[in-house]
Amino acid sequence: MKITGDMEINAVLAIDEEKMLKTLSWLVPELGWLQTPHPLRSTIGSVSVEQAARIARIPLSEMLYALNLAAGETEQTLSAELSS
User: Fold this and answer.
1) Closest to 12 (Cα-Cα) out of 40, 59, 43, 47
2) pLDDT tens-digit profile of 32-62?
3) Domain range annotation of the chain
4) Nearest Cα to 62, choosing from 28, 29, 32?
């Protein structure tokens, strides 16, 4: 499944929760608490990937690239999409 900017964090986590949590924690260290049960987890889950990138102050393209690699997309596919 291809991760897009308008996907909610919950949908990203549904792909592979452990791998996506580690990737999100690496990209946005402030979201590291998502790995433990927390009352705000359901709230942050409804945030889109684009919103999370804005909150973290990192380019959306970087967040999408890292998340899609973690989701199993190949580097060649992602590079081809970026250059087109």
Assistant:
1) 47
2) 656 666 555 566 667 899 988 988 899 999 9
3) 9-83
4) 28
